[in-house]
């Protein structure tokens, strides 16, 4: 199955970073395309987007200053299907993308995404005390997978912190 394209640009407000695309995303060529994934709902309910976008509109979010990438580009059924070697290579590639594009915020969609990238054992939700890449603020958000057992209200509250930060940045 082919890799799905990143949506990257210079000057992004947020680069959303996932583990890797789902099989459904691989089939459609769009990020967060699994119907059980709550990503698009979370963005709308947190106020990060003015409406609920569909996976087919993922490229449109560049206009809002949002980009998409993953640690591993290969679509799989689940993260357990990703080899350690793929993570090693993916970390190098992701670090290069972050260093080159310098989004204002790197939003790791899942604690595991962040800990896998940084090698840190744990992380609180939200903004991290130090950045993995100079010039980029790290934000750890819950995974949007339908398998997550955290109440949706709590997930949305965490993503809302990111929206408040971005709104505050625009004022300054």
From TrEMBL:
<dbReference type="InterPro" id="IPR015637">
    <property type="entry name" value="MUG/TDG"/>
</dbReference>
<dbReference type="Pfam" id="PF03167">
    <property type="entry name" value="UDG"/>
</dbReference>
<feature type="domain" description="Uracil-DNA glycosylase-like">
    <location>
        <begin position="9"/>
        <end position="158"/>
    </location>
</feature>
<keyword id="KW-0378">Hydrolase</keyword>
<dbReference type="InterPro" id="IPR036895">
    <property type="entry name" value="Uracil-DNA_glycosylase-like_sf"/>
</dbReference>
<protein>
    <submittedName>
        <fullName>Mismatch-specific DNA-glycosylase</fullName>
    </submittedName>
</protein>
<dbReference type="InterPro" id="IPR005122">
    <property type="entry name" value="Uracil-DNA_glycosylase-like"/>
</dbReference>
<keyword id="KW-0234">DNA repair</keyword>
<keyword id="KW-0227">DNA damage</keyword>
């Amino acid at each position: 199955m082919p890799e799905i394209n990143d949506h990257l640009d210079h000057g992004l407000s947020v680069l959303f970073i996932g583990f890797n695309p789902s099989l459904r995303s691989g089939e459609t060529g769009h990020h967060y395309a699994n119907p059980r994934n709550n990503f698009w709902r979370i963005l709308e309910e947190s106020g990060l987007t003015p409406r609920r976008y569909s996976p087919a509109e993922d490229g449109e979010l560049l206009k809002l200053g949002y980009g998409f990438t993953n640690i591993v580009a290969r679509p799989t059924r689940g993260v357990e299907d990703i080899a350690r070697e793929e993570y090693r290579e993916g970390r190098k590639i992701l670090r290069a993308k972050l260093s080159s594009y310098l989004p204002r915020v790197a939003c790791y969609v899942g604690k595991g995404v962040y800990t896998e990238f940084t090698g840190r054992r744990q992380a609180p939700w939200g903004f991290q005390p130090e950045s993995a890449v100079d010039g980029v603020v790290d934000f750890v958000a819950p995974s949007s997978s339908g398998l997550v057992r955290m109440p949706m209200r709590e997930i949305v509250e965490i993503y809302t912190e990111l929206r408040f930060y971005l709104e505050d940045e625009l004022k300054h």
